[in-house]
Amino acid sequence: MFEDLHLSSIVVSTIRNAPVLIFAAMAGLFAERSGVVDIALEGKILASAFVSAAVAFTTQNAWYGVAAGVAVSAALALLQGYVSITQKGNQLVGGIAINIAMSGLTFVLAQFFYQQGGRTPDLGQARLFDIVLPGTEALAGIPFIGWFYGHVIGGHSALVYLAFALIPLVHWVIYHSRFGLRLRACGENPHAADAAGVSVATTRYMAMLVAGILCSFSGAYLAIVQSGFFLRDMSAGAGYLALTALVFGNWRPMYTALGCMMFGFFSAVQIQIEGVDLPGIGRIPGSLIQMVPYVVTVIVLAGLMAKSVAPKAIGKPFVKSR
């Protein structure tokens, strides 16, 4: 049966691993298209993951947790915008500061409130569970079609569907809306945008707010869907992988999503081969297997960094011409 093949597990795992990166990468896309380097994706993922898990556990309502994660991630994004846009501070330093602060603060708060080694209790029924599509049982006995309908198209949480629906939506906003035109103008030539009557600061703040909201779903997905609890540094570099996907996709939504799928695929392969005796090789140590996504990241950056063209004004504070 097709369901018994490892390939089927890899396909399903790829679909379930990708949303964490898709949400974060689309968040980074808005910020960086406006001209702000969003190195703080990692910190916002961690903050939203902790708050989502804590609120979901307290209220026993997953959607309250998601909403709380949105609020804290948006607040961090606006703080990041204040440092980068209003104060014209170093965007890399400000982003790294948020990452370091959230890595320590989430652990300290989790230990203070729950006394479980820096993690939250299991969420239990407060998690977001998979959606079973109508007709799944009727098609279950049909080879391939039953598996494809029940596990590839169906059988995922609402956030998975939101992540994949986000890809064409972001593409439309960036390339076919007035806001997207202003966003790209601010990232490419903010002085020309300012001369045309566009408020560069307002546009960049709006981009950071959207980025904070989208990034929060990445953290909520980690805590409320995948794990069912918050654990210290559980993002495991997802924010940096999302930035790599942006480079891979040349800051374009569709290609960036393909990069996220690629990293999701290698994460799924990593899970499949861990603890398995490979023909002619034997069992590969787990520490080496866990390096797979990061080795792929280095290879992608080494091969594509020179070919990728970032927005021209990225990382440069805008000073209004007099």
TrEMBL record:
It holds the Pfam family BPD_transp_2. It is found in: Cell membrane. It is a multi-pass membrane protein. CDD domains: TM_PBP1_transp_TpRbsC_like. GO terms for cellular component: plasma membrane. Keywords: Cell membrane, Membrane, Transmembrane, Transmembrane helix. It comes from the Bacteria. The keyword tRNA processing does not apply. The chain crosses the membrane at residues 6-27, 63-85, 92-114, 158-175, 205-224, 255-273, 288-306. Signal peptide: none annotated. GO terms for molecular function: transmembrane transporter activity. PANTHER family: GUANOSINE ABC TRANSPORTER PERMEASE PROTEIN NUPQ (PTHR43370:SF1), SUGAR ABC TRANSPORTER INTEGRAL MEMBRANE PROTEIN-RELATED (PTHR43370). This is ABC transporter permease. It comes from Massilia atriviolacea. The lineage of its organism: Bacteria, Pseudomonadati, Pseudomonadota, Betaproteobacteria, Burkholderiales.
